[in-house]
Every structure is written in C-alpha cells, then in structure tokens.
Recover the amino acids of this structure.
C-alpha cells in the first residue's frame, strides 16, 4: 500500500510551558500520526526548538497550504518561527567546488543511491577541472572564474543562479574562495561549508600544513554554516581521525579526505531533513 505522504514541521520560539502540548494537540486534532517528535529547550538562550515528522491518517488529506493556514494561529500564540515541508520532496541544492573532487564525488554518489534526498540544481566552480565529473552525472556545470577584480560581479551572478534555479541550499564542497559579507548575508542559514580541520583549530586555507607543523595526534573536519567571519560559522557536524608522527602533510590530506566527505554529507542530510537550527553562534541538531 502506497505510504502516506509525510511532512516535517520545524519550529523555534521563546521557551515556555505548554508548547509541546500545543504542538501535539494541534496535530492530533487534525488526525495526524506523529512519526518523530524532537524538541529541545535551551535554558541559556531561552529558545525552544522542535522538528516533528508526521502523516495524515485515514482518508483525510488536507493540502499543506490548508495546514499552514490552520497552524498560523498556534504560531502567533507562541511567537514561532516555523515552516512545514513535504518530507519526500528533494531539497534543491547548488554545490560549489574549486579543484578538489572528493566531497563533490561523495555528494553525487549519495544522491544517486537516494541516501541524500536532494536535487542538485548546478555545480558552480571557479575552475574547469570538475566539469566532466558533474556533466556525466547529468548536473549542469557553471564556470565562474574569480579574481580580486571580478569577485563582486561573479557573486551577483551566483545569486542570480541561486534565484533562477530556486536553490534552497548552497554547499561549499571545498570551494576555496572567501565569500563576501554581502553574499554571506544573502545566503544566511542556507550555505554550508566543509572546513578541513577540527575547528576552532587551524583556520584558513592550509590546515593540514598547520596540523603537521603543530604535531597534532588528531585531525578533523568541520561542517558549518557560512558567515562573513571565516571559519567561524555555527558548527553542524565534526569528525576526527588519528594522526601520527609519520604522517607528512600529504598523508594528512589523504586521511582527511574521507572525514571531510562524510562530515559534509551528514551535515547536508541533517539540514535538508529539517533537523538543524541555528541557536546564536551554535546549533541544535536533532
Ligand atoms: N565568508 C566565508 N567564505 C568562505 C568560508 C567561510 O567560512 N566564510 N569558508 C571557505 C572555505 N575555507 C575553509 O574552509 C577557505 C577557503 C579559502 C581560503 C582562502 O584563504 N582563500 C584565498 C584564495 C585561495 C585560493 O585561491 O586557492 C582567498 O580567498 O584569498 C580560506 C578558507 C569558503 N569561503
């Protein structure tokens, strides 16, 4: 029997008693079956966060718009920021790359297996190197070379592409150019970067060399939302791997590839699954 369409209600609001009951009652009163109900009350920031996956039971199948209209009352009562999304609808994701291919390959593969429920709207790069990789997977490739002089116009063109393709999330899959403050503001909360170190250690373009010179015994990767402050955005996910005195920077780079790809894919999966919230300079990840 064809499974009923599932929806995800994502909510954040000032924390207070009665929110969970209100959400539960709202869904129950409309014949919804709750598959997953995640919630967290951050006493420090005073904010409440919840992500709820549900289906409509019986032969009731109100449209999402009807549901949204009905939920507005509860949302206003608790001053909620909220959105409802069809859980099965692929998220529209634009991937940015430079010359390193490992994170792009991994995202393309996880999309092809269905593990990542995404539609890749385009691959945008400041180099031509990865065109074949994208095009043979049927993904449009857009070459936007960046120089100090043309960076502003190229960033305007990127925003046009994001708009034209209805892109919901931009993923920096080892894109090695620093985005301007303006672009970061335009993409706030919908741009994820993979940094090739265990932040806050070893920021910048050459973390593996820094790790080698410092002689660390663990190296890592960090997926974070992109902000104007380089490598300072709210962290979504991290992984580490052991390092040894015998690892030169090249070997550390090799060890790092796998954890970069895995960490980025996990962060993208959490984000498009409506399970990540920005909470000041931190995140809540269900
Ligand atoms: N506004 C932001 N832009 C970007 C971020 C970010 O956190 N905020 N992350 C980077 C990725 N990155 C590290 O993860 C990184 C990339 C590039 C550089 C850098 O210094 N680039 C040089 C040029 C290097 C080159 O051309 O190879 C530069 O832009 O002058 C530092 C960190 C993506 N963008």
């Amino acid at each position: 029997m064809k499974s009923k369409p599932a929806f995800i209600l994502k909510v954040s609001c000032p924390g207070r008693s009665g929110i969970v009951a209100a959400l539960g009652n709202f869904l129950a009163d409309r014949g919804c079956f709750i598959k997953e109900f995640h919630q967290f009350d951050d006493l420090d920031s005073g904010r409440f966060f919840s992500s709820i996956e549900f289906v409509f039971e019986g032969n009731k199948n109100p449209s999402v718009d009807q549901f949204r209209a009905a939920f507005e009352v509860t949302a206003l009562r608790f001053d909620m920021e909220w959105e409802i999304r069809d859980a099965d609808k692929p998220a529209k994701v634009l991937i940015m790359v430079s010359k390193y291919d490992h994170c792009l390959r991994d995202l393309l593969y996880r999309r092809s297996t269905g593990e990542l429920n995404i539609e890749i709207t385009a691959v945008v790069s400041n180099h031509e190197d990865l065109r074949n990789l994208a095009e043979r997977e049927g993904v449009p490739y857009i070459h936007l070379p960046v120089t100090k002089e043309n960076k502003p116009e190229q960033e305007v063109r990127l925003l046009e592409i994001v708009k034209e393709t209805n892109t919901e999330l931009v993923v920096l899959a080892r894109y090695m150019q620093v985005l301007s403050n303006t672009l970061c503001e335009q993409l706030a909360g919908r741009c994820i970067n993979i940094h090739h170190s265990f932040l806050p250690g070893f920021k910048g373009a050459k973390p593996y060399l820094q790790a080698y010179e410092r002689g660390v015994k663990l190296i890592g990767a960090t997926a974070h939302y992109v902000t104007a402050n380089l490598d300072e955005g709210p962290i979504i996910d991290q992984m580490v791997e052991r390092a040894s005195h015998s690892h030169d920077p090249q070997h550390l780079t090799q060890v790092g590839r796998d954890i970069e790809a895995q960490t980025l894919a996990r962060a993208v999966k959490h984000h498009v699954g409506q399970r990540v919230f920005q909470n000041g300079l931190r995140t809540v990840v269900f």
Observations:
- The domain at 6-86 is CATH 3.30.70.260 (Alpha-Beta Plaits).
- The CA atoms of residues 195 and 263 lie 10 Å apart.
- The chain has two domains: 6-86, 91-285.
